Amino acid sequence: MAHEVLAVRYGTRTTRRSEIFLNHHVYGEPDAEMPMDYFFWVVRGGGRTTVVDCGFGAAAGARRRRTMLVDPVEALRGLGIDPSTVDRLVVTHAHYDHIGNLDQFPEAEIVLARRELEFWTGPYAGRLQFAHSTEPDELGLLAKAAADGRVRLVEDTLDLAPGFELVVVGGHTPGQLVAQVATTGGAVVLAADALHLYEELERDRPFFVVADLADMYRGFDLLREMTEDPGRVLVAGHDAAVPERFPGRVPGLAPELADLVVRVAPGEGTA
Q1: What pLDDT, on a 0 to 100 scale, did the predictor assign at position 267?
Q2: Could you tell me if 167 and 156 are in contact, meaning their C-beta atoms sit under 8 angstroms apart?
Q3: Between the CA of residue 3 and those of 54, 183, 238, 246, 262, what are the distances in Å?
Q4: Which pLDDT score is estimated for 242?
Q5: Residue 221, CB half-sphere, CA atoms under 13 Å: how many?
Q6: Beta strands 151-154 and 109-113, pairing class
Q7: For 232-247, what is each residue's pLDDT tens digit?
Q8: Where's the Metallo-beta-lactamase domain (predicted)?
């Protein structure tokens, strides 16, 4: 089954290389500013819409000095998607910028890795080196959804639908997921935060927030394998170059949304 894949750029910030790459000093390079964007994704096919992550909430983003370009909930509505009726939400991991609007999806089955749920409801979730990337209230909503029977857990891999596979890679968080989606032009690999920036893969440089460094490196290797064949493209989770690599847009959107929604289609970009 072929699907349509959209990347929605909902936020941004300016940061520094030393704040992005783990142990940046070991590379012997000068520091410099760099942009970092925030995305969630929409997968449509077979008469069903799946939202992949749901962005940060306004308050959590503001506390971290992130700029919200469009409220994720309003972006979905601009795409003709009512979050309150979405029946499937994939959570690639439980950081604040990926589950910040869970309460807007009351009918959705939430799909995430078992390891992810168990970690963030376990004894180490509150330790500061982990907790700084999360919001307790949001983790509470995730735990409640699990208690209410609304969570579907991924062990290692899961065929969510024909042509739509989820793979647990870990690294950034214990149960970080990536998605592989079939489209009419070829496969799209949504790396989410298994790969924040293309440079991480190109230069083998891990991101600074990491739960298991060896798993992060293994994730890099897996992403290389998943995209080594022609016709398969890789979408990084936070790279400002995503809209340039994938020039396709969605016609008919409101002007304030038109440049923030990217149609990811193999053969139409440079990735």
Answers
A1: 78
A2: yes
A3: 19, 5, 22, 16, 14
A4: 99
A5: 8
A6: parallel
A7: 999 999 999 999 999 9
A8: 37-238
